[in-house]
Write a structure and sequence with these properties.
alpha/beta; Rossmann fold; six-stranded parallel β-sheet; elongated
């Protein structure tokens, strides 16, 4: 029997999860897939219903100007799902968009199993979000082992599948240097300003000033700037005016190669922090929201850790410079030791070695996710035939 699955990944990190999930699903039998995604899901044969960049938005005041278009895209996606008639709809992260989509599918009477992949951070935001999720989805697949209990007590069946980032192929740093003309003696620093337009716009000027403060002490500074299609043009244009040689790249191979060749990294808060940690790259993480969004966040955020590495390890391993602290001076002070102090570097790297077991759970995460999707579809069909 051919499994029909519709995958909605609103951001590049979800695109990577969706692509790995598709490959794992095909190992278990024939699959017909459609959905919304980016270049990685496109490489797996899913032509996105619309450009993924249109949903890669975070923050109340960032979303408001695009609200009408986002609502229209929800309607279009729901209609496309009803036409496709999938066995399962797998929505990945992008909670605002995907919860709206789930409401539309429920209202339309879609029989497809609604499976959400990547739990919302209810330990940061109000726990009421878990109860709302339970009304919208049939099952939740989580990345971290402590999450299922948070949702199951609110009535949402959940499975810890692990983070498929642990499946990434190690990069070839030497080959990256050859491809991008980075001399062996040059110090390579990875710069990762985020996958959303607002992130890149706010962080790139700050990151440039950080590097200006440190560059005099860094022999042969060369930058690696792995990016994604949603912001590639903006990033490339900005970095082209910087005074250091820089390789702006797209694609998984070059990203992992850049990580393998880098001395340290300066990145936006998010999934990339986990990628860097798993690749063994000392790092700091930075973030700036729209000021009005940040002001509201001060009243609802329940924890002070934002970097996924620090949340998972429950201690401040990676320096986090968020909002008012996201300034060139403090960022340079945090990044400097990771470039020049071997003890500071070793302390981070030792902590990073703990992560693979936490994220993978001893099995291949994408395969566990695929098995969960097939199980939920089977259970949904059995229930509907009773």
């Amino acid at each position: 029997m051919t499994l029909r699955v519709y995958i909605v990944a609103g951001e590049p990190s979800g695109d990577a999860l969706g692509a790995r999930l598709l490959r794992a699903l095909r190992e278990g039998g024939p699959v017909e897939a459609a959905g919304v995604g980016g270049e990685l899901m496109g490489a797996e044969g899913v032509a996105s219903l619309f450009p993924q960049a249109e949903t890669a938005v975070m923050g109340l005041f960032e979303v408001l100007p695009r609200a009408r278009k986002l609502l229209r895209r929800m309607d279009e996606t729901a209609a496309d799902i009803l036409r496709f008639r999938p066995d399962a709809v797998v929505t990945i992260d992008s909670g605002g968009f995907n919860k709206g989509l789930a409401r539309r599918l429920i209202a339309a009477g879609s029989p497809a199993a609604r499976i959400h992949y990547v739990a919302p951070m209810v330990w940061v935001w109000a726990p009421g979000r878990a109860r709302r999720m339970a009304r919208l989805f049939d099952h939740l697949m989580t990345l971290w082992p402590f999450e299922p209990a948070l949702f199951e007590r609110e009535g949402l069946p959940s499975t810890f599948v692990g983070h498929s980032l642990v499946e990434a192929e190690p990069g070839d740093g030497a080959a990256f240097r050859v491809r991008h003309a980075v001399a062996p003696e040059s110090t390579l620093v990875s710069v990762l300003p985020g996958s959303r337009a607002g992130e890149a716009r706010r962080l790139l000027p700050v990151f440039r000033e950080v590097l200006e403060r440190l560059s005099g002490d860094i022999p042969g500074l060369h930058l690696a700037v792995p990016t994604v299609g949603t912001v590639a043009d903006r990033v490339r244009d900005a970095v082209s005016t910087w005074p250091w040689p820089a390789a702006v790249t797209l694609g998984e191979e070059d990203k992992q190669g850049a990580f393998a060749a880098s001395r340290a990294a300066l990145g936006a808060s998010g999934t990339v922090a986990l990628e860097l940690a798993l690749a063994g790259v000392p790092q700091i993480t930075a973030y700036r929201l729209n000021p009005a969004t940040a002001l509201i966040g001060r009243f609802v955020i329940r924890r002070r850790r934002f970097c996924p590495v620090n949340i998972l390890l429950d201690r401040p391993v990676v320096p986090e410079l968020i909002q008012g602290a996201c300034r060139p001076g403090p960022l340079a002070e945090a990044l400097g030791p990771l470039l020049f102090d071997e003890n500071a570097r070793a302390a981070q790297l030792a902590a990073f070695r703990e992560l693979a077991g936490e994220l993978g759970g001893g099995a291949r995460p994408s395969l566990r996710a695929a098995e969960t999707v097939r199980r939920i579809v089977h259970e949904t069909h059995l229930s509907s035939n009773r």
